[in-house]
Amino acid sequence: MTACPHCPTDNWPELERGYRAMLPEDVLAFIDAHRGEPHSESLLIATLHMVQDHLGHLGPGHLEAVAQLMQIPLAKVTGVATFYHYFRLQPRGRYLINVCLGTACYVKGAEKVAQKLMDELGIHFGETSKDGIFSLESTRCVGTCGLAPVVMIGEEVHGPLTPGQVPALLESYLARAAEEMAKV
Amino acid sequence: MPQPVHDFYQAMADRVGRTLAARDAEHQIVVQVGSATCEHAAGSQAVADELVRHIRASGRKDILLHRTGCTGRCSREPILGVRLPGRLPVKYERVNRDLVHRIFTEHIQGGIPVAQHVLDHEAGPLPERELLFCEGSRCHGSGPGLRERFAAMLAARGVSRGSVRIGAASCFGACGLASGGPATYVLARPEKVLYRVTGEEDLTAILDGHLIGGQVVERLRAQEEPIALAFMERYGDVAFFNRQSRVALRNAGVVDPESLDEYVDMDGFKALADVLERRDPDWVIGELAKARLRGRGGGGYSTAAKWTLARRQADATRFIICNGDEGDPGAFMDRSMLESDPFNIVEGMIIGGFAIGAQKGFFYIRAEYPLAIRRIQQALDTCRAHGLLGRNIMDSGWDFDLEIRLGAGAFVCGEETALIRSIEGERGQPRVRPPYPTDRGLWGHPTVINNVETFANISAILRYSGDWYARLGTEKSGGTKVFALAGKVRHTGLVEVPLGTPLARVVNDIGGGVTGGRQLKAIQTGGPAGGFIPASMQNMEVDFEPLQKAGSIMGSGGMIVLSEDDCMVDIAKFYIAFSQDESCGKCTPCREGTTRLLEILERITQGKGELSDLDKLERLARLCQRTSLCGLGRAAPNPVLSSLKHFRGEFLAHIVDRHCPAKKCVALIHYEINPEKCVGCTICARNCPVACIAGARKEAHVIDQAACVKCGNCFDVCKFAAVDRV
User: Fold this and answer.
1) What is the DSSP code (8-state) at residue B118?
2) CB distance from A107 to chain B under 8 Å?
3) What is the ipTM metric for this complex?
């Protein structure tokens, strides 16, 4: 005999409280607003986007919370989160550096820019610098081929870049980070 | 008989007319700044901020700041346009904050353009007026002859060449609109008058009446309103633009992408009003059939046929999807269209929804395009608020709605069955076709998926007729195609040309040829699914079939120019690495095939290849092509096969001679210092990361080959060209 006939488990209210605590307010509102709608499970990718926008990455706890609250098997949620390159399962630095390795950038020397970034930051693709300021990733074409080679930092696109400009560019973000942290 | 749709459209057009009249742009100084991702990256936001500061500080009330989308002239951005009342519009290239100050004081305040920063302007003063002769290859006007005769007449009459410029434009899109036989169209700027000229006496009338007399020759004024008129009126003086034919991109860089009013002013939603008034889906599909419009996503399937298939289904629940998952590296036309003219794509989708009888449509856009997503969302919200979307569209009683779904960085989702899975919230893995989505698509219902550019053409076709659109293109494919020109080409950017235009014309005439005076080696079309067109075939016409015959594909329209400095084995490896990385892993031929292809290519570029590798490559590539589940795997070997076909010699050089002709493959090159040229400045030694360069000051240096990592720093920093790459 359960308190609530639609609840997936006996202790659902308690579990639900825990899962809800994992996720930001507007993600919860989004899930609640679409619960029970036809094909509401199709909003899984949109939900994961929202979580990542807020938290910077998708941790195991977040995936489980999304799975439980949307009532989608965790295996499927994990499957989706790992399938798409855009989703990150590890925390990342304050600024995400995406080196475009699309064709136009490649023929204009993106590899040298990438190498310079790795040298300067002392990290490889997929890693985060020790100070937690930068994460380095590569991407396939950000669609600004006219400016090739380009590097995207956060939502800002920089290009055309030469390896020589890399230190000054990183410096400008370090200064910005210091400024932001001073405010807090 | 009541005509609710007509009345709705009329009321909207009237309201827009009043709003824009109140703005009175004709009598104001208009300063135009682009705002798309490329422009932002180039610094257009800082330019706009600086302008606002200047306008405010000047206290002037007659300066309008106009935000538009992107014109596609990427390498010269940010571009700033200035139009003084009654004067030719002037565009500045690569504008920065300091230049804004000069432009503002000298041009906007002082009335004299800063000539040396004008877009693509070689030297000398700017003309005051311009006559642009339409010389499209497809219309049978007597363009070139007339233009030359007119120039001669001008000279004979002593009109100064400096003040009046006689230019040529590729096509205004007026062809076929006229009823009175062949003619040449002449656009007079800045008066914005379009003349229809049939002979020399008309030229005399324009010379005497218009240029000397300063009066519009009403008798010759064209009745037609060609599609590219507004675009040419603003950008017609620049060769990069006037050699194009703008249909899908007609509003890019002309309208404010966030303004419904400006879109309506460009006859926006007129086609939709027409469709909803006729209430005849067969008419819509019939026009598309006449237009010979073929899918612009790359497949080239007839749009009319696809829509008919969905329309004939018994299942009444149907969907329409716009494929904005532009993942081809090197292609950015979809992004530009979504960002620069979002209402046009929305209108195309609504019309598509009506034609196939759908209730709902989806925009599937890559998450990597945040601005495109924002602009489309804004356009959808605006349309809903103005009765153009949702319930009872344009008072027609018909309901239809659109929603955005985001991609998440999976190239394979550009494949239609994978895209459907992704919208359903699943891993984006394709499934076997048939059944095709037009039979069983999204949630098992008939679904039409078209590319962004296909939708961008719909309203133009319905507005100017299918016959008109067909005439722009070739026997088999009507209309124009947008190409994203990038790589080793002088003018990178978006180029829209009629199908059937020779490749060389796109690369050389519009693109300005290869950068740095190097030789053209090949043109890569179609991204990772495409192939290479060698320089020897550059006069080939761009169309679906010829490209396919040469071993490439049209694809979504990426066009990468490769010069003699590019190694074809290396580029083929690059594409295979991409496909291998993006293979979803569902079917073995693609998952394993691309991996092994990559291994072999890596071996070859490392100088460890064997002759038998070429046969293996070919056999494996054919296998992958024939047996893969979806388009990704079937097309992935194209770069390998076409480079083997056209550039086999380069493969042989890598394998037999252990030599990379383009000196690109690191394992096959080394650096040497020429003792004759080396002056012993030590800059190379100081920049060597592994300290393998020895030599005293003012003495020739030597590289220790055993320790060298071939980073190329010495080659880059040497000021005396003493370092050789061999």
Assistant:
1) B
2) yes
3) 0.90
